[in-house]
Specification:
- There is one protein chain.
- By secondary structure, the chain is mainly α.
- The protein has 4 domains: 17-177, no CATH class; 201-258, no CATH class; 265-298, no CATH class; 327-409, no CATH class.
- Helices cover 46% and strands 9% of the residues.
- The chain has helices spanning 9-58, 62-65, 74-88, 92-107, 110-117, 123-133, 141-152, 157-171, 176-184, 207-224, 233-246, 251-258, 269-272, 290-298, 327-337, 376-384; strands spanning 188-193, 199-204, 265-266, 280-282, 286-288, 353-356, 371-374, 388-391, 397-400, 406-409.
- Helix 1 packs across helix 5, helix 6 (123-133) packs parallel to helix 8 and helix 7 (141-152) runs antiparallel to helix 8.
- The longest helix is centred in the first third of the chain and has 50 residues, at 9-58.
- The chain is globular and about 80 Å long.
């Protein structure tokens, strides 16, 4: 509730500006919902075109072709791709992806398609669902969709991709080790030209080595930063990579020799002992096979020690005795948070700062429940703007924007299981924040002109 003082023109102007800003945000949300709904309708039409392409080659009429199978022969696919590609003026490879996504959504992921048509998820979320399902048996698609769809609407595409990759490990029939060995055969290096005399170097390599290289470049860049250094952190990392490749005996090579990359891996005890093949978690990447995890653990210089209550098992706080966070608690929080805890931020927690949610200056404790990883940008945003944050049970954070919008974030490894057995319903209804009333429904902003309506066709 904002109190407006009639005599205070500055306060009134600020209130009106925020109200208008909020209205435009609702408009932007509605545009995004309608855009997603159109993408869902597009998938329905593309799937129907696939059926009709097959029907045309088989000499079927319109009604028969609308319910026949999808295009399967090369001739049927060429007909479909050529017609759609030339009509939309898009590359044939793009059309191929559209067709694959559409067919999978219509046949195997009906709830995802319904959520997309309702504007509850974006087309990119739907593409992630299709891409991850393409690597598991069709009979597992329903379980996969039921577990992931309820969270898709409140995660960014990057966050949803990470969540989907983790859950994929639970339902994939092949062992992680077998798939990793097969994937190793595809390792390689590629160069893609870019504008203005630049190029992008891509390396496909094992995740553990990639994370180690990334961390080493980060540490070298931090060592080089100092007075008189005008290069950004990203530029320092790039220059370090170039030097390590082309001049390993130079100054960067000497600095790199002193830097030991930090790789954090969480391994189930039975998997560590070799009794199970349950996958481990590589911090900053996700699931890895147990053999790789045991190799990394065997080479680890030390073991993380978490101080816990012997009865409750809760991590013990330092309280008001010290502002400084002990190393064990810092590492525990880094592993648990995995990324910056600001809504949507994916910066790795290893490169973040630990913030007292309830400020130390105002009586906050140095404890597991009152600390959260924040990148430098969002740490400053919290302290230097009107954004506010409140700690909730389970280390969830309730962020409130300057205009009153509420966003909930949770640690990447929450104490409660993140996977419901089944979604309560096909519709993804947003749940109100604890202790708050559900937001009032706003009127839908209608587009100019007539809405696009699909013609009546026999159902799939």
């Amino acid at each position: 509730m904002i109190e407006v003082i009639e005599s205070d023109a500055g306060t009134r102007r600020r209130f009106v500006a925020r109200e208008a800003f909020d209205d435009d945000l609702y408009l932007l949300e509605d545009i995004r919902r309608r855009k997603s709904a159109l993408e869902g309708d597009e998938s329905v039409v593309v799937a129907r075109l696939s059926r009709r392409a097959r029907g045309m080659m088989l000499g079927l009429d319109a009604e028969e072709s609308a319910v026949c199978g999808f295009a399967r022969t090369e001739e049927e696919k060429r007909l479909l791709v050529a017609e759609v590609g030339t009509t939309l003026r898009v590359p044939e490879c793009t059309v191929g992806s559209m067709v694959t996504d559409a067919e999978t959504l219509v046949t195997s992921l009906p709830l995802t398609l319904a959520a997309l048509q309702a504007g509850e998820i974006t087309g990119r979320h739907a593409h992630v669902m299709v891409a991850q399902c393409s690597t598991i048996p069709v009979e597992a698609h329903g379980e996969f969709e039921a577990a992931l769809l309820p969270v898709a609407g409140r995660l960014t595409v990057a966050q949803f991709t990470q969540r989907a990759r983790i859950y994929r490990e639970r339902v994939h029939p092949e062992t992680p080790r077998k798939r990793h060995v097969e994937a190793l055969e595809r390792r390689g290096v590629w160069v893609d030209p870019a504008a203005d005399g630049m190029a992008q170097l891509s390396v496909l390599l094992p995740a553990a080595e990639a994370i180690a290289i990334d961390d080493k470049l980060d540490q070298i860049a931090r060592v080089q930063r100092g007075e008189g250094e005008s290069r950004t952190h990203a530029q320092l990392r790039c220059d370090a990579a170039i030097a390590m490749f082309l001049d390993p005996e130079g100054d960067i090579g000497q600095v790199g020799a002193r830097v030991r990359p930090q790789v954090i891996v969480t391994v189930p005890v039975l998997s560590l002992l070799g009794h199970t093949e349950e996958p481990a978690e590589l911090h900053g990447y996700g699931p890895i096979d147990s053999v790789t995890a045991r190799r990394l653990t065997a080479n680890a210089p030390s073991v993380c020690r978490w101080l816990t209550d012997p009865i409750t098992g809760q991590k013990l706080p330092v309280g008001r005795e010290s502002y400084r966070v002990p190393a064990d608690l810092r590492l525990a929080l880094t592993i648990e948070d995995e990324t910056c805890r600001f809504p949507g931020c994916r910066r790795r927690a290893q490169r973040c700062e630990l913030d007292h949610v309830h400020a130390w200056a105002h009586g906050g404790e140095t404890s597991h429940a009152n600390l959260a990883s924040l990148c430098s940008k969002h740490h400053h945003l919290k302290h230097e703007s009107d954004w506010t944050v409140e700690a909730l049970p389970g280390r969830e954070l309730r962020w409130t924007s300057p205009i009153g919008r509420v966003h909930i974030t949770e640690p990447a490894s929450p104490a409660h299981p993140p996977w419901p057995e089944r979604p309560p319903s096909p519709r993804l209804e947003p749940s109100p924040s604890p202790g708050s009333e559900p937001p009032p429904k706003r009127p839908t902003f209608k587009p100019v002109g007539d809405n696009y309506v699909l013609p009546d066709e026999p159902p799939f």
